[in-house]
Amino acid sequence: MKSTILVLLSLYFFSSCTDRTSHKTQSFIVNNSLVNLKLEYYRNGVLVPDNSLNINNNEKIKVYTESSEGKDVGDSYLVKLNADSLVVTYFDNKKTTYLFFGILSANKDAISFENTRNIFNLGNWKKDIILESKKRVETYFTFTFIQEDYLRAN
Fold first, then answer.
1. What is the three-class DSSP state of 144?
2. Torsion on CA atoms 119, 48, 99, 105, rounded to nearest 10
3. Are strands 85-90 and 59-69 parallel, antiparallel or unpaired?
4. 80 with 64: CB under 8 angstroms?
5. Where are the alpha helices (DSSP H) in the chain?
6. E strands present in the chain
7. Running along the chain, 154 residues long, what does each successive block of 10 average in pLDDT?
8. ∠ CA(13), CA(17), CA(22), 5° rounding?
9. Which residues contact 63 (CB under 8 A, 6 or more apart)?
């Protein structure tokens, strides 16, 4: 009886001890442009289904969450998209086109990947490490549309 209890306690102890690490990454888009906007993603000139977003002024929406093992920062929203361009349409039908890396456009007003306001460039997203411990890291990526984005639209 004692040996059975000792074995059960040992199994419980060793099964609850783990060296596994994990991460959680969340991506957010904030609209501080002072107007409502709509995001429509395209791939090879075709609208990507089920990825359009309407974002009201002063609204922050979570667009992606990724969790898995390993302490590396997880994938961001950009990996999920599978898009090469984005058209943002503001409430008055003014529009701005954003281009992924290496994509060329006849639209002279399109925002290139290198531009500091391009949503496709992860370097333009604010990265916040929310939690970092020995075994877990949680990261938020946030892209904010600002009034200048709206004023630049045609």
1. strand
2. -160
3. unpaired
4. yes
5. 2-16, 77-81, 147-152
6. 22-32, 37-43, 46-47, 53-55, 59-69, 85-90, 95-99, 126-132, 136-146
7. 56 53 87 97 91 95 82 64 92 95 85 94 90 83 96 93
8. 155
9. 27, 28, 29, 53, 77
Three-class SS of residue 40? strand
Provide the whole-model pTM.
0.80
For 69, phi then psi, to 5°, come to -75, 160
- 83's CB contacts (< 8 A; 6+ apart) are 41, 42, 43, 48, 51, 100
Tell the burial category of 111 from Cβ atoms under 10 Å away from its Cβ (0-12, 13-18, 19+).
buried
Compute the distance between CA of residue 154 and CA of residue 145 in angstroms, rounded to an integer: 16
Question: Cβ of 16: how many Cβ atoms within 10 Å?
Answer: 7
Residue listed under structure tokens 């333009």:
124
Residue 88, C-beta contacts closer than 8 angstroms, at least 6 positions apart: 37, 38, 39, 40, 95, 96, 97, 98, 145, 149, 153
- DSSP state letter for 7: H
- C-alpha 36/C-alpha 13 separation (Å) is 54
